[in-house]
């Protein structure tokens, strides 16, 4: 594993595999196994950005590539982080290399969604999601969670859905509103459903 540019180059090459999602999965699993967390951050984000993450960092997405067929970013989830249910409209691979991301997966029912299962992605762990996945994530630990996220589309630009955290009503994804929902959930100490698995 080299620096971020090398990772992006290898990820772009993986897109031409017969099963691109699996190839990205394998690449990210190899990447997070290639160095200790701190060293991995230094290699991927640069020394300065990595050092700023000492202590308890804030939520952050450090974008490595933003293109029509591939989006990759490094995600930092502070303790207590939680977000609202959302979809991605493509395959997704999340490689948690320090800490934990607890996922709750939802399925559609009667015009809304209902919790169907949960998955605690405890580092090192690579989560693969199909394009019809609907999920929300949280960090239940007292320490930050760090992961690499990859999506087979222009994650920040394509039309997607989000579901209100209380009413579970679906609406078009709006990044600003989604962010305000998440901040409000965090302030209120909202936790994702515990009985989802
Ligand atoms: Fe997601």
Structural overview:
The protein has a five-stranded antiparallel beta sheet with strand order 1-2-9-4-7, covered by helices on one side. Helix content is 27%, strand content 34%. It is globular, with a radius of gyration of 16 Å. α1 (4-14) packs antiparallel against α2. It has a single domain, classed as Jelly Rolls, CATH 2.60.120.10. The longest helix has 14 residues, at 20-33. A hairpin with a 2-residue loop joins β5 and β6. The chain is built from five helices and eleven strands, in the order ααααβββββββββββα. The chain is of the alpha+beta class and 197 residues long. The mean pLDDT is 94. Fe (ii) ion binds next to loops.
Search tags:
197 residues, alpha+beta, Jelly Rolls, five-stranded antiparallel β-sheet, four-stranded antiparallel β-sheet, 11 strands, 27% helix, globular, binds fe (ii) ion
